[in-house]
Amino acid sequence: MSEIVPVGDPLRPHLALRGNVYYYYNAERLGERAGATKHTLGTRVREEAEELYDERYGSHAPPLPTGRRVKCRSAFAAWSENPLGKRDPATVDKHVTTWNVWIAPILDGVVVADVTPKKVIQVLDRARTVKSKKTGKLLSPAMHRQVYKTMSVFFNWCASEPQCYRTDNPVAFIGDYRPPQPAITRIENEQLLSRGELDAIVLKLDDGRGDPVNIYKHQVIAQLSAAIGTRISETLALRLDSVELEDGKTGVIHIDWQLRRQKQRNQDDPTTWLKPTKGARGTIGDGKRTIALNPFAERVLRAYLERGKREGWLNEERNRWDLLFPNSLGKPMVANQVGTRISKAAEAAGIERRIVSHYFRHTYASTLVMGGLGLEDVAEQLGHAPEMTRKRYAHIESREERNDKVAGAGWQ
Predict the structure, then answer these.
(1) pTM
(2) Which of 339, 356, 373 represents a domain boundary (last residue)?
(3) Which of 85, 158, 239, 325 is the right S-S partner for 165, CB 3.0 to 4.6 Å?
(4) 329 burial class (0-12, 13-18, 19+ CB within 10 angstroms)?
């Protein structure tokens, strides 16, 4: 008699063939009681066999074989090596960190198929009530939702491999326990800089080594980021061909890329340095835009390009990859280091509140709004969704008295 062979249908794990006839066949239970889980479906036609299988066993099929008794620890390790879909490495790293800190203490030793909505809620409750060891504070609403997203992504992947893990996503059944989307916070005065503060920060910028060329690069990076509203990671990812400057025409700059974090790139492999610039709420690639340069930005860039070519640090032999802001080795700078130097320069300039480089971007956007530019046009300049821009900046537009600190603060 011929052998019974499973057909490998993940939706019908016990569908099998003996010769040309289809069977329901559960090899796990067959050893316990011979013949108890081996039933002929009485047909040689695959479509008919599937219909009979679904009719007889679809909603009452016994558990899948023991291959599904995989613990969450092992399954998550497999997911992190091969996540479902095209995921940015930074996103995967964020999920891995979230899992290790907030989810692993509860789910690591649990079999994937045994995770219930109640277990998911237990993880979310822990994330809501336990303080972070790193900061000593409770998680922000955004980070609490990140815990939810990590579990949702992981169990969706598990459900895509039902023969190995499970057939559904328990996160989908937690109802009102699902954390809400964090509110978009509006920009406040403390996050905006006056023209005097911007100038003072630039004058105090230092590269930590006293290299005049490197200090000059940092100054131009700060000026350009504030003058056109780019993120520091976008400014550092600019290439020489990103800039179009022609006599008699308004210059433009193309924002297509942003710099990956240092730990996500190989300094000797240029293909790992950049990623498509993000749009609203972290979406990848839809933040691409072309920005017209204002007179100040154009003057700064022309002077920078002329000096760089005159002194040789923008020439091909010292800048093989045509970066606009290469370091002394011709490779990308590190965004976090530049941001830290801007914060230290603000402190050295006597600015009492804490300043971060992203405040340049907020100041630029606020200046546009108070100058009368519509919010949809501001959103286009920033690479934001219009709704996000409205929530962040509409209160500035509607003020009866304009903020003297911001009006005209940008470098024009």
Answers:
(1) 0.63
(2) 356
(3) 158
(4) exposed
